[in-house]
Amino acid sequence: MATIPKPTEPTTQQNTATGGVASGSQSFHKAPKVIAPNDSNKPTIAVLGSGWGAISFLKHIDSTKYNVVMISPRSYFLFTPLLPSCPVGTVDEKSIMEPVVSFANKKKGDVTYYEAEATSINPDKNTVTIKSVSNISTTNGLGINVGLDPNELAEIKYDYLVSAVGAEPNTFGIPGVEENGCFLKEIPDSKKIRHKFIDSVERANLLPKGDPERKRLLTVVVVGGGPTGVETAGELQDYIDHDLKTFMPNLVEEVQIVLIEALPVVLSMFEKKLTTFAENVLRETTIELKTRTAVAKVEPEYLIAKTKAEDGTVEETKIPYGVLVWATGNKPRKVVTDVFKKIPEQNQANRGLIVDEYMRVKGTNNMFAIGDNAFAKLPPTAQVAHQEAEYLTKTLNKMARIPNFHQELQSRTEKVDLLFQDHGFKPFKYVHLGALAYLGAEKAIANITYGAKSFYSGGGVITFYIWRALYLGMILSWRSRFKVVADWGKIALFGRDAFKEL
Ligand SMILES: Cc1cc2nc3c(=O)[nH]c(=O)nc-3n(C[C@H](O)[C@H](O)[C@H](O)COP(=O)(O)OP(=O)(O)OC[C@H]3O[C@@H](n4cnc5c(N)ncnc54)[C@H](O)[C@@H]3O)c2cc1C
Ligand SMILES: NC(=O)c1ccc[n+]([C@@H]2O[C@H](COP(=O)([O-])OP(=O)(O)OC[C@H]3O[C@@H](n4cnc5c(N)ncnc54)[C@H](O)[C@@H]3O)[C@@H](O)[C@H]2O)c1
After folding, report:
1. How far apart are CA 220 and CA 301, in angstroms?
2. Which residue of 4, 221, 343, 494 could cross-link 321, Cys pair, CB 3.0 to 4.6 Å?
3. Can you name the CATH fold of 33-169+331-423?
4. Global pTM value
5. Which InterPro entries does UniProt cross-reference here (predicted)?
6. Which fold has domain 177-328+433-494?
7. How confident is the model at residue 138 (pLDDT cuts 50, 70, 90)?
8. pLDDT band per the 50, 70, 90 thresholds, residue 386
9. What is the mean pLDDT of residues 282-308?
10. In this structure, which ligand is nearest to the CA of 222?
C-alpha cells in the first residue's frame, strides 16, 4: 500500500534519537526537518528515482521487511524505449507514463513516496536531503502538516540507500547547445520537439519557395547517431512522409532531416552488417547522413560542424537549422558527482558511482547504486538497470532473512564484500539480451542474444514487428501495454496528428 508522505506530522513528535527536528536557532536559515522511519523495527531503504532502476527495484523488494521510501521529482515511470515515438505522436506520451503510486499500491508493506528531488546524499549521517517539487501545499486547514510544503527541504534517515537517479544529457560543454538544442530524455523534451517542429513548418509555410529562411526553418538537425538520434530521425521522417504530406503537401518535399555523427558509423554498438543496413535505410528515406562530423558550436539559427576526412583533413561547415535535436549521450547528475568527493573510494569516479559485484557503492556498507548512475562497466541501458535492480532486491530480501545480518553489516568498516561472500551471496551477472533500434519506414535492426549466444541478427520489416513485440513485452504494466497497442492501431487507421500545443 502506498502512502503519500505521512512522517512529518507535528514535528515536535519526532523522535530525537532518530534526529528529531533541528531548530536552526543558531542560524538565520531554518534547518531542514529530519524525517524518521515509519516503523523503527524495520530497516529503511531510501530509493532515489522513479525510472528503470528504481521502479524495477520497487516491484521486487519485499516491503514487508523494509520501510521503503521512494524519492523522485518525477511522479511516474517513463518507458524510455518508446520516447522517440512521442514527438511525432506515433505513441502518445501518456501511454508510456505510469504513476509511481500504481506500482506502490500493489505492494504488501508500506511504501512512502516523496515528490522531491534528492539534493544531497550524506553518507556520513546516513541521510539524504530532499527538496519538495510538489506545488501543492500539504498543510491542511487544521495546520497539521502531513507532508512537505513546496520547495521545503527535509532530511530522510536511511539504513540503506539505493541510488537510481539516472543521468542527464551531455553537451560536452559545446557552446550554445543548452540554449538552442532540444534533448530527448523526458516527456517535456518530446513536447518541446513537437512544438518547435510544427512551429517551424508553419512559419516556413508563410514564406515564398526559394527563400533561404524557408529552407532553414525546414531543416531539422539531429546530432548524435546513437540509438536515440537514429530512432528520433526515423520517426520524424515517418511523420513527414505519411502525415505532413496530407497536412502541408506544398512544402513536404522541402523538409530535410540531417543526422550528424562524429564516428564513421551510426549505431556503433551493432555489428557492421547491421550498421550498413541502417545507413542504407536512412539514406533511402532521404535523411542526409553526415558521419565523421562533430558539431563544435551552436548558434540560434545555425551550427558549426567539423568533418574529418579519412586522410585527416578537416572541413568546417555552417549548417542552418530550424529545429535542433541533441542526442549525444549522458553524463552523471550533480547529486552523484557530489558523492564522488565525499567518499575516498569514489574520488576517481567520473562516469558514475563505482560499484562492486554486489552493486554496493565502494567505500560504503549501506549504499547501493543501479542503472545509469552506477559505474559497473556496462552500457547505460534499461535492460542493465532492470537486471541490476532485480538482482539487488534478491540480495536485500536475502539479507532480511539472515539473522543479525543488518547489524553485522552496519558494524563492518572494511572488507565488506567478504561478508557477502561468507553468507553465500552471488555476484551480479549481467545477461545481455541483445539490442534493437527502429530506423523509420517500418524497418528496424535487431541482434537478439542470450549472453554470448546470438539467436537472431537482421534488419527490415519483419524485424520491425519483432521490435514492436519485444518492446511491448518490456513495458512494465498492462495498462501501458494496452494504450501503446491502441496508439499503433489508431495511427494505422487515421494517421498521426499535428497539434503543436498537445
Ligand atoms: C530516448 C531514449 C530511448 C531509450 N531506449 C532504450 C531502449 O530501447 N533500450 C534500453 O535498454 N535502453 C534505452 N534507453 C536507455 C534507458 O532509458 C536508460 O538506460 C534507463 O532509463 C536507465 O535507468 P535508470 O533508472 O538508471 O535512470 P532513469 O530511467 O533515467 O531514471 C532516473 C530517475 O531518477 C529521477 N531523478 C533525477 N534526478 C533525481 C534526484 N536528484 N533525486 C531523485 N530522483 C531523481 C528521474 O526523475 C527518474 O525518475 C533509452 C534512453 C532514452 C533517453
Ligand atoms: N534502441 C535502444 O536500444 C536504445 C535507444 C535509445 C538509447 N539507448 C541507450 O541509451 C544510451 C544513450 O543513447 P544515446 O543514443 O542517447 O547516446 P549514445 O552515447 O549511444 O550515442 C551518442 C552519439 O553521439 C555522438 N556524438 C557525441 N558528440 C558528438 C558531437 N559533438 N557531434 C556529433 N556526434 C556526437 C557519439 O559519437 C555517439 O555515437 C545508450 O546506452 C543507448 O544504448 C538504447
Report:
1. 11
2. 221
3. FAD/NAD(P)-binding domain (3.50.50)
4. 0.93
5. FAD/NAD-bd_sf, FAD/NAD-binding_dom, NDH-2, NDH2-like_C
6. FAD/NAD(P)-binding domain (3.50.50)
7. low
8. very high
9. 98
10. 2
CB of 228 sitting under 6 A from ligand 2? yes
Phi, psi of 303 (to 5 degrees): -130, 160
202 backbone φψ class: left, alpha, beta (φ>0; ψ -120 to 50):
alpha
Average pLDDT, the chain: 91
Does ligand 1 lie within 6 Å of residue 49's CB atom?
yes
C-beta 47 within 6 A of ligand 1: no
Which of 52, 90, 93, 445 is the best mutation target for the ligand 1 pocket, counting ligand atoms within 8 Å of the beta carbon and taking the most? 52
pLDDT of residue 145: 52
Judged against a pLDDT cut of 60, whether residue 194 lies above it is answered with yes
From the alpha carbon of 381, which atom of ligand 1 is closest? 19
For residue 85, give the nearest of 471, 445, 461 by alpha carbon: 471
- The pLDDT value given to residue 226: 98
* Spatial separation of the C-alpha atoms in residues 44 and 41, rounded to whole Å: 9
Q: 74 C-alpha to center of ligand 1: Å?
A: 11
CA 228 to centroid of ligand 2, rounded, Å: 6
- Going from N- to C-terminal start, the domains of the chain cover 33-169+331-423, 177-328+433-494
> What is the per-residue pLDDT for 109?
85
Fold match, 33-169+331-423 / 177-328+433-494: yes
pLDDT 10s digits, 31-53: 666 776 667 789 999 999 999 99
CA-CA distance, 132 to 277, in Å (whole number)?
A: 47
193 CB near ligand 1 (under 6 Å): no
* Ligand 2 atom 4, closest CA: 227
Could you tell me if 342 and 163 are in contact, meaning their C-beta atoms sit under 8 angstroms apart? Answer: no
Q: What does the pLDDT read at residue 151? A: 87
* β-sheet bridge partners, residue 482: none
pLDDT surpassing 90 at residue 172: yes
Contact 22 CB / ligand 1 (< 6 Å): no
